[in-house]
Amino acid sequence: MEKKEVTLSELARLVKGNLQGDPDFKVRGISSLEEAGSQDVSFAVGPKYASQVASSRAGAFILPESWPEKLPENAILVKDPYLAYAVTANFFVNTPFAPQGVDERAVIDKSCNIHKEVTIGAGAVIGKGCKIGRHVHIHPGVVIGRDVEIGDETVIFPNVVIYDGCRVGKRVRIHAGAVLGADGFGYAQGPQGMVKIPQVGRVVIEDDVEIGANTTIDRAAIGETRIGKGTKIDNLVMIAHNVSLGPHCVIVSQVGISGSTRVGQGVMMGGQVGVVGHIEIGDGARIGAKSGVPHSISPGETVSGIPAMPHLKWLRMVNALKKLPELLRDVTNMKKRIERLESHEKE
Fold it and tell me: How far apart are CA 119 and CA 129, in angstroms?
């Protein structure tokens, strides 16, 4: 891999920061405060890391604009150090796509329309009528059903399964073991038991989505299950049939969203959130980890708990719960005192 380097002035422009130091200083990598060398840039998100910054061997630092300590010799001051770190890390990590072609051990139907500038690994299987865009990288062991469309610059990691008819946009990243388009869980109670409801819809993944390892997104019963542009989904998430997930959402690991729920733009769900079906989560809502959501959530609302309720109310309830043993003891003591008083009155 070709080593990259950038001057401090160029890096400051890249992260939209204010340079303090030598503009011609050359940065050749990014690393943690503890492991950085003299040609690395490192970063700190706040003053609690001041001692680590002071002892770090990094040649330059990305720091918040409000840094209260003495500045190192080379520093870039930014509004959001974590965002600046992400931009810098992407600069050093990302490399131009170099198509390797189709491995001879891949199995691809002749009816497929595959751009010549792709990489398709050994053991990949691609069904009839698929359309694969430019600079797509399909890793070994991926299975893609019939009539699937994959947009330009998408990366599909090993052992992903994409069922028939799904649509995947541009610059999507689908991590190992994810399954797109399996049947939704739909049954009707009949006299002889459960009758399966055919799942004849599809999954649509819009541009710039990332889907974590072993996440499952079910096809719609009728119509679409849709994941909006720029949404980021962690590992081990379950999204059921006919869910509509808005653009730029963040869904953390082990979340489960039941069928036909509509999730707005920019919604954030913490780990292990459970959402019932056929409700609406408004734009910009925040749902705390482990919450159970049995009803619709208004736009911009922050909720937590089981059942989900306004976050501050949930915190007060949890705080009161901690005092429950003391309250129980006090009530028990009061009950004994009342019983003694009553017995004296009878005498």
Answer: 18
